[in-house]
Specification:
- This protein has 13 helices and no strands.
- By secondary structure, it is an all-alpha fold.
- The chain is globular and about 55 Å long.
- Residues about 1-5 and about 10-15 have low confidence and may be disordered.
Length: about 280
């Protein structure tokens, strides 16, 4: 949920997770973001061997678990200490490291289900973390996870060309590429071929189907600030889905504009008040 997911999108369509976070939670939310970005930057570092990256991720795991010891990653140790104090499940952070290790391994994603499984480590933990931080009911966890997965998938669409050129990664499943006879190199073009357009439409349709299943999340959330934030994110997500459906994604990257933000803020506030528990 941080900037569409914990992974920083090159598209800069940042989603406002943490914008209205309760003051008492701000230090931990900031620490979580900082520790996650630190590990993500390691996975995305260029001109660094996979072996060294894996060693650094292993050191981060140790810093989180052994937060009372001196570490090369004090920000991660600080997060580990906060998690222990609040009795939060370590998987809320450690699952992210699994996703970064998969990025380092750079194994191709074969089918849609494998992409979703990757997202359950790269994005879903953020949703669980936010719900756990606010001590929300477990019934919020799955829809919160799925909302973060949707944001990650939108991020993947927006960053197709950058991921290919900078990181040599492709998050489009191989079976979809094969189904539409699309080569990975086609995704680096300045325009979308007819075959690629059909493939990306199916990708978007899958996201839209998932999006319908998370619209009830605000009804489950008790905390007003969190409910307000989720309503804003849902509105912005709907706006982005509409924008993606109207443009050539490889030629033009949609952006959230002032109207999108204003509409989402008003919608979020009204819906949050209407759903008052």
């Amino acid at each position: 949920m941080f900037e569409m997911s914990i992974k920083e999108s090159k598209t800069r369509n940042s989603f406002p997770v943490g914008l209205v976070v309760s003051p008492s939670l701000k230090p931990m939310v900031k620490a979580y973001y900082t520790a996650a970005r630190l590990a993500d930057d390691i996975a995305d570092a260029q001109n660094v061997s996979a072996k060294i990256k894996k060693q650094q991720i292993t050191e981060i795991r140790k810093a989180f678990a052994n937060y009372g010891e001196v570490s090369s990653y004090p920000a991660v140790s600080a997060l580990g200490q906060m998690f222990a104090k609040e009795n939060l499940d370590g998987s809320l952070y450690l699952d992210l490291l699994e996703a970064f290790e998969r990025d380092i391994a750079a194994r191709p994603i074969r089918i849609w289900e494998e992409l979703l499984d990757y997202c359950r480590y790269s994005a879903a933990p953020v949703g669980r973390f936010m719900m756990a931080a606010y001590n929300e009911n477990y019934s919020t966890y799955i829809p919160a996870e799925n909302l973060c997965i949707i944001l990650q998938l939108l991020d993947d669409l927006g960053d197709i060309k950058d991921d290919l050129s900078l990181l040599k990664r492709c998050y489009i499943p191989q079976d979809m590429l094969k189904k539409y006879d699309v080569k990975i190199s086609d995704l680096g073009l300045s325009y979308t071929t007819a075959e690629a357009e059909k493939m990306l439409k199916e990708f978007l349709d899958k996201i839209r189907a998932m999006n319908k299943d998370v619209q009830h999340l605000p009804k489950l959330i008790k905390n007003f600030r969190l409910r307000f934030e989720v309503c804003i994110i849902l509105s912005l997500t709907n706006s982005m889905l509409k924008k993606y459906g109207k443009v050539d994604i490889l030629q033009y990257q949609p952006r959230l504009n002032f109207y999108d933000w204003a509409k989402s803020l008003v919608y979020g506030l009204l819906k949050s008040l209407f759903l008052k528990h």
